[in-house]
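Researcher: We plan to redesign the surface later, but first we want a full-length starting point. Tokens attached.
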């Protein structure tokens, strides 16, 4: 897990350095847009990984003793060093992003970076609303399909019952009339 987080941080750093190298030659923000996209994707992934890692339970004392007895060198993702590395790298990446925002504002005008962040936030919220609406539509569709098949099943067994009852009545009438079919003389 620590390795994944550090890999995400390295990806973010490479995106920041790509943006920094291109920012002076860029004519508009679209020239560096894919680097900014990579930066935010990697930053979000790192935050998700750190959050997952924080919810992880520490190893038991028995497991630690077993590792020592068996001379296993298993990296402890919850050690102070590993956690410190993750947190410090995250802080460093946040500072790099802030400096990048200042450079973008200097190049493209005051408030450009803030506008980028706000637009991204609005787009993510809109996307989440669409996903939620689609989930609700899917849930409603599942309910409707379920109701449809319940109705089909109900009609099927009712029709089967009615046909069986009619055939039984017909058979009884044929028996009662001594082999003659009552309505076909």
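Model: Full-length starting sequence:
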């Amino acid at each position: 897990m620590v390795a994944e987080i550090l890999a995400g941080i390295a990806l973010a750093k490479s995106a920041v350095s790509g943006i920094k190298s291109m920012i002076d030659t860029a004519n508009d923000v679209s020239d560096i847009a894919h680097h900014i996209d990579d930066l935010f994707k990697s930053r979000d992934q790192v935050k998700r990984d750190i959050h997952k890692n924080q919810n992880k339970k520490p190893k038991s004392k028995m497991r630690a003793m077993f590792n020592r007895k068996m001379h296993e060198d298993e990296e402890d993702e919850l050690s102070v060093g590993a956690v410190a590395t993750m947190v410090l790298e995250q802080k460093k990446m946040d500072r790099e992003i802030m400096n990048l925002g200042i450079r973008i504002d200097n190049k493209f005008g005051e408030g450009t970076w803030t506008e980028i962040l706000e637009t991204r936030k609005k787009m993510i919220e809109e996307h989440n609303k669409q996903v939620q609406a689609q989930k609700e539509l899917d849930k409603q569709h599942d309910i409707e399909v379920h109701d449809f098949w319940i109705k089909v099943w109900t009609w099927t067994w009712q029709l089967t019952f009615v046909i069986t009852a009619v055939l039984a009545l017909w058979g009884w009438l044929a028996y009662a009339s001594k082999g003659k079919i009552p309505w076909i003389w």
